[in-house]
Write a structure and sequence with these properties.
Blueprint lengths: L1 H19 L7 E3 L5 E5 L1 H10 L4 E4 L3 H5 L7 E2 L7 H5 L8 E4 L4 H12 L4 E5 L10
Parallel strand pairs: 2-6, 3-4, 3-5, 5-6
Antiparallel strand pairs: 1-2
Length: 135
């Protein structure tokens, strides 16, 4: 009987440890090896735009989408371009990056790429330009 109780307790502890590893949308995606990689909402993104010195704003939408409006002084780097990684590599990895797309899908993928490329601080607008409150 005691073995069964102990086994159930161990299983419960393992389950709770695994469930605690998941993150909410506002939590940091990663903060390892000095990196800060985070998906943020409109309010936090707007605050970062106003307060982050030397921020590099990257719009990963198509040029046609970009022509319809963009955030701040964003640079357009089309996620679908074959040389996307090459173009992104031209940005300063030590300076903060504010990243967005139309709805959050492409920028979410781009966020992972920038993390793998060792960009140190990246904030992604999780809802995208389509839901941007500042336009």
């Amino acid at each position: 009987m005691n073995k069964i109780v102990i086994t159930l307790v161990i299983i419960a502890l393992n389950f709770s440890a695994v469930s605690c590893q998941s993150t909410t949308d506002n939590q940091e995606v990663a903060q390892s090896s000095g990196q800060i990689i985070e998906r943020v909402d409109n309010k936090k993104f707007e605050s970062l735009l106003a307060s982050t010195k030397d921020a590099q704003i990257i719009d990963v939408r198509t040029p046609e989408e970009y022509a319809g409006g963009f955030i701040g002084n964003a640079t357009n780097v089309n996620f679908f371009d074959k040389d996307f990684k090459t173009k992104v590599a031209e940005f300063d990895k030590s300076k903060p990056v504010l990243l967005y797309c139309q709805g959050g899908g492409r920028s979410g993928k781009a966020l992972k790429i920038l993390k793998e490329m060792d960009f140190q601080v990246v904030y992604e607008l999780k809802t995208g330009y389509g839901n941007w409150s500042g336009k």
